[in-house]
Amino acid sequence: MSPNHPHAVPNLISQHGVIGDMRTLALVAQDGTIDFFCHPDIDSPTLFGDLLHPSGGGSFKLCADESAGALKHRQIYLPDTNILVTRFLGQNGIGEVCDFMPLDGSGRIVRRAKAIMGTVTFQLEVSPRPDYARREVTLEPVEDGGVRVEWESDDGPQSVYFYASMELRLEGDRILATAALPEGETCHVVLCPGRKDSPSIDDAYVADAFSRTRDYWHKWVNAGRYPVFWRELVVRSALTLKLLTSAEFGSIAAAATFGLPEVVGGERNWDYRFCWVRDAAFTLHSLTRLGYHDEAEAFVHFLMERAVETGESGLQIMYAMDGATSPEEVTLDHFDGYGGSKPVRIGNAAHEQRQMDIYGEFMDAVYISSKARGKPAYSVWIKMARILDWLCDNWRLKDKGIWESRGEPREYLSSRLMSWVALDRGLRLAYDESLPADVNRWRSERDRIQMSILEEFWNAEIGAFTQYKGGTSLDAVVLLMPMVKFINPRDQMWTSTLKAVRETLVHDCLVRRYNNTDANSDGLNGEEGAFTICSFWYVEALARTGYVAEARLLFEKLHSYANHLGLYSEELSSAGDHLGNFPQGLTHLSLISAAIWLDRALNGDRKDPHHFEFHMLEDPDGIF
Question: pTM higher than 0.85, yes or no?
């Protein structure tokens, strides 16, 4: 962020790690501050929101005291887990804060501080600001040395508790504490959701919760199959995607946050804490390729439960995490926004849009899952077949496209291409699993869609497939064409398109979604950063087309844009600033896909037993 920007923020987007329990997530900054946390669910109001409303949105800070000298901050994850360690390095000592959320459904945040070298003084400051900082809080000491935080909501009284091994004191609407720890000693503070009975929070509980949480994540990672190259990057991305899944409902959030800007100071500030069919289906595809199938089954069940509620088209483009219709889009006018980026929106008006691409993404995820788990249940298949029958009649409908344009509806390439994928995967399922379907009609309409794309979206003057029918502009979504097996990557039409993408949308390893011009307006002011999912798509497209060395170099360059923990936000500036919501599922799933493809290209036919098993299980007909 520019130092001359009139609005400062305490921590940059990139200066965070994320912890969670597959119900909600918290962002932990390098200085030990939790400055973004929605409670009790990922799409609930914030309890801490200083990231979007500095010094007024609420925070939960546990850090080493810097009054005796400046400290260096470092963060790492305990390997193969979502347990975060924040380190404070000084000339006179080293301290650590370990943060995690147990996977037992308790909804707790556990924070344990430890003096690693020398005597280290830790400071605690908690400023709860519930309901997007719209509610006043009452703080009251309780037995066992804890503090109860209460507030009124539209649903009645709400509360959370803070229990600590250090003495807590109240100062206005803040909870404070200080602990000077000799080398090797620890202290802890635990946030607990409101409950009438006082939970037992002591050193034994913290140690046991840590062990159980560590063992859960180790077991989950060990159940996967990872590429030989870039294993740590892929594991971190997979763990991040897992955090975005709902253990209760099977839904998958697109991102952990809302309101973080695509351009600092601009209006492109969206709420992505909901389950998009598109994002969730892409997520399932990547997790399935790593050997994780339970998440796919849970999501298909989640979606099919709602398919009968949505009219004849069968699906909405997005849902709240519990399956309800996504809330209306409103603005938090009292929030200053990240770096002054307003309006800060909650809810998302995109739920009212038509996006025809969702059927292809969903059917491809179902197809990939069926390759490992067998045919879908008959009751599920009937609903899918009904959706595909509807698509046969309606694939020419204008819509808002995969990027949720707020401009005029068009016939977008993304929608046409993914409609082809939907019918193609439906046909494959029907044939492979001997399922009842109107295959003659599906095949006929699939072929019509193919002809439509090849004839109506090809612009001979620019030598490329265009963003929408009759247009002249390009869209990075065209990079999906060889990935979904629509076109041979050696086809001259494709290689010409790839060249045009490179000339118009690519800058080094950074790729824009599209150029927002008068002829191609998305209905919003201003430009945006490079879209990270498109950058990884470009890497994979290069590799599939045969440019493996170039793809590998750009892949390595993209790694340099990750934050210190290997996490990515939605977009990147040319200066490497993270923009948009964080962490974003689309980016991490596209990283996984590109890594898998490059690993395959670089390993060739090597007969390493693990490599052989990995490729034997990889599906060659999927979306990536």
Answer: yes
In contact, 187 and 111? CB cutoff 8 Å:
no
| CA 21/CA 247 separation, integer angstroms | 8
Angstrom distance (rounded) from CA 87 to CA 72: 8
Please state, rounded to an integer, the average pLDDT across all residues of the chain: 90
Residue partners of 477: CB distance under 8 A and separation at least 6: 402, 403, 413, 414, 417, 467, 513
In our burial notation (b when 16+ CB lie closer than 10 A, e otherwise), range 527-552 reads ebbbbbbbbbbbbbbbbbbebeeebb
State the average pLDDT over residues 106-132: 97
Cα–Cα distance for residue pair 438/440, rounded to 1 Å: 6
Is the pLDDT confidence value at 608 over 50? Answer: no
What φ, ψ does residue 162 adopt, rounded to 5°?
A: -120, 125
Residue whose token pair is 């088209």: 313
User: CA distances (Å), 156 to each of 142, 159, 285, in order?
Assistant: 21, 10, 41
- Determine what percent of the chain falls in helix, strand and coil, rounding each to the nearest 5: 35, 20, 40
Q: What is the SS3 assignment for 583?
A: coil
Residues 335, 53 contacting (CB under 8 angstroms): yes
Q: What's the rounded Cα separation, in Å, for the pair 163 and 177?
A: 11
Which residue's structure tokens are 């996006």? 355
89 is written with which tokens? 């390095």
The domains found in the chain, sorted by start residue, are 13-222 (2.70.98.50), 231-617 (1.50.10.10)
The model's pLDDT over 514-525, given as tens digits with 9 standing for 90+, comes to 886 555 555 566
Q: What are phi and psi of 34, to 5 degrees?
A: -85, 105
Q: Mapping DSSP to helix (H, G, I), strand (E, B) and coil, where does residue 77 land?
A: strand
Tokens coding 312? 């004849």
Sign of CA dihedral 148, 149, 151, 153: negative
Q: How confident is the model at residue 66 (pLDDT cuts 50, 70, 90)?
A: confident
Residue 404 reports pLDDT greater than 90 = no
Compute the Cα dihedral for 53, 56, 59, 62 and give only its sign.
Answer: positive
Q: Provide the angle, in degrees to the nearest 10, between the axes of the packed helices 413-433 and 358-373.
A: 30
Question: What pLDDT score does 224 carry?
Answer: 96
Q: Where are the beta strands (DSSP E) in 10-155?
A: 16-20, 25-29, 33-38, 46-48, 59-64, 72-77, 84-90, 93-100, 109-117, 120-127, 138-141, 147-153
Asked if residues 497 and 413 have their Cβ atoms less than 8 Å apart, the reply is: no
Tokens 């999927």 map to which residue?
A: 622
Residue 236: Cβ-neighbour burial (10 angstroms; 0-12, 13-18, 19+): buried
For residue 426, what pLDDT is reported? Answer: 97
Neighbours of 265 (CB within 10 A): 17
List, for residues 87-115, the tens digit of each pLDDT value: 999 998 999 999 999 999 999 999 999 99
H/E element, 132: helix 130-133
Tally of CB atoms within 10 A around 172: 8
Q: Is the pLDDT of residue 622 over 70?
A: no
Query: What is the percent of the chain where pLDDT is above 70?
Result: 91
